Amino acid sequence: MKILNLVTLLLVIVGGLNWGLVGAFDFDLVAALFGDGSALSRIVYVLVGLSALWQIMPFLAALKTDEARAEAGVRAPVRS
Hints:
The protein has 80 residues and is mainly α. The protein has helices at residues 2-25, 29-34, 39-72.
């Protein structure tokens, strides 16, 4: 399961960077690499979207853990 989380996290990062490029420079890196509207580009977009859905689970688990700590009066450790 850890490898799946790492792969999906990487794809979410790739998707985020691609959207950053689209927003800042109107440049779609995925389309530039694989062709605008090509089957491969569409596969990449679908994989990024599915990865985002998958990453909701660890996000919700982290929120639940933080809520449980807050209810128990436990403070999160300070990182330096």
